[in-house]
């Protein structure tokens, strides 16, 4: 199993399936598994009343940049595994936008890594979000 998985997906994200896959092979040194499940909240961030959200690539190298940042974070915090699945395309309110999972040796590393990757992705420089 890959220690770093980054995917930008058009099919609906299945949280349970991803968690099962993530949890399937754990390192003996794992002390913390931290999951961030980002959803399309309502009312919206930019438009209070919306029916759908369009998630789109803003930078043609979005995947490469997210992977590189994730790989750097993996090494910086000496992690065991990271999954980053980000939805692309048009989704409904309350649908999943992001599944981010970190397997770490300790809580501090897990929390710091999740926050760092999350803030990098949420900056909306690589992937845009439009409430419609």
Task: Describe the protein.
By secondary structure, this protein is of the alpha+beta class. It has one domain (4-131): Molybdopterin biosynthesis MoaE subunit (Aldehyde Oxidoreductase, domain 3, Alpha-Beta Complex). The chain contains three helices and seven strands. Strands 1-4-6-2 form a four-stranded mixed sheet, sandwiched between helices. Strands 5-3-7 form a three-stranded antiparallel sheet, with no helix packed on it. Helix 2 packs antiparallel against helix 3. It is globular, with a radius of gyration of 15 Å. The mean pLDDT is 95.
Key structural traits:
132 residues; alpha+beta; Aldehyde Oxidoreductase, domain 3; 4-stranded mixed beta sheet; 3-stranded antiparallel beta sheet; Mopterin_biosynth_MoaE
Topology:
Elements: E1 4-9, H1 15-24, E2 32-39, E3 52-57, H2 62-76, E4 81-87, E5 89-92, E6 96-104, H3 107-122, E7 127-131
Parallel strand pairs: 1-4
Antiparallel strand pairs: 2-6, 3-5, 3-7, 4-6
Helix pairs in contact: 2-3
Alpha carbon gap, first and last residue: 38 Å
Q: State the CATH architecture.
A: Alpha-Beta Complex
Unreliable residue stretches: none
CATH homologous superfamily descriptor: Molybdopterin biosynthesis MoaE subunit
The DSSP helix count reads 3
Estimate the global geometry from the Cα principal axes. globular
The CATH class label is: Alpha Beta
Total count of strands: 7
- Largest sheet, described in full? 4 strands, mixed
Rounded mean pLDDT is 95
Structural class: alpha+beta
Query: What is the domain total for the residues?
Result: 1
CATH topology: Aldehyde Oxidoreductase, domain 3
What is the spatial order of strands in the main beta sheet? 1-4-6-2
Oligomer status: single chain
User: In percent terms, what proportion of residues is strand?
Assistant: 25-35%
Gyration radius over CA: 15 Å
The secondary-structure element order is EHEEHEEEHE
What is the helical fraction, as a range of percent?
25-40%
